[in-house]
TrEMBL record:
A GO term for molecular function: phosphotransferase activity, for other substituted phosphate groups
Compartments, record wording: Membrane
Keywords, in A-Z order: Lipid biosynthesis, Lipid metabolism, Membrane, Phospholipid biosynthesis, Phospholipid metabolism, Transferase, Transmembrane, Transmembrane helix
InterPro entries xref list: CDP-OH_P_trans, CDP-OH_PTrfase_TM_dom, CDP_ALCOHOL_P_TRANSF_CS
Record-level GO BP terms: phospholipid biosynthetic process
GO cellular component assignments: membrane
The protein's name in its UniProt record: CDP-diacylglycerol--inositol 3-phosphatidyltransferase 1-like
Chain segments annotated as transmembrane: 7-28
Membrane-topology descriptor: Multi-pass membrane protein
Keyword Transmembrane helix in annotation: yes
Gene: si:ch1073-145m9.1
Organism: Sinocyclocheilus rhinocerous
Family: Belongs to the CDP-alcohol phosphatidyltransferase class-I family.
Xref: Gene3D superfamilies: 1.20.120.1760
Length: 135
C-alpha cells in the first residue's frame, strides 16, 4: 500500500466521520448537537462507499477504515445506551425490551417486561411508537 491511498477521497471522508463520531460522543448530553453530528456521520458512510466506487479509489485500507469507524460509532451508541439505562430504575434490560416492543411488534401487544419499563401493568407498545391503552 502506498501513502497515496491515505489521501483517497473516501478515506478523507472516513477521517471526517471519525471526527464527527468523536465530537458527537463528547456532546451526547445535548441532543441538539449529538443527533445532527451522528446523522451526518451516517450519511457520509454511504457517501464514502459511493465515492470509492465512482472514483475507483477502493482499497483494503479504506474497507478496513470503514468497518472500524462503524464499530466505533456502534460502540459509542451502546455506551450511551448503557449510561442512560444505568441512571434509571429501568436498567439495560428495560431499554432493550422497550426497543424490541416498540420497534418490532407488528401490532399493539403486551410486552413481557412492561411493568418494569413503564411502571404500570397492562400498557402495551405499538409498532408506530405510541403506547396503547389496556390490552
Amino acid at each position: 500500500m502506498g501513502f497515496h491511498v491515505l489521501f483517497y477521497v473516501p478515506n478523507v471522508i472516513g477521517y471526517i466521520r471519525i471526527l464527527l463520531v468523536l465530537i458527537a460522543w463528547i456532546l451526547y448530553s445535548d441532543p441538539g448537537s449529538f443527533v445532527p453530528l451522528y446523522v451526518l456521520s451516517i450519511i457520509l458512510d454511504g457517501v464514502d462507499g459511493w465515492a470509492a466506487r465512482r472514483l475507483q479509489q477502493t482499497s483494503r485500507f479504506g474497507a478496513w477504515l470503514d468497518v472500524v469507524i462503524d464499530n466505533v460509532g456502534r460502540g459509542m451508541l451502546w455506551n450511551m445506551l448503557y449510561d442512560v439505562s444505568s441512571d434509571s430504575r429501568v436498567g439495560l434490560a428495560g431499554v432493550f425490551n422497550g426497543v424490541v416492543c416498540i420497534c418490532v411488534q407488528p401490532q399493539c401487544q403486551r410486552c413481557p417486561m412492561e411493568e418494569l419499563v413503564h411502571g404500570e401493568p397492562g400498557l402495551s407498545a405499538c409498532s408506530d411508537g405510541k403506547r396503547c391503552g389496556a390490552s
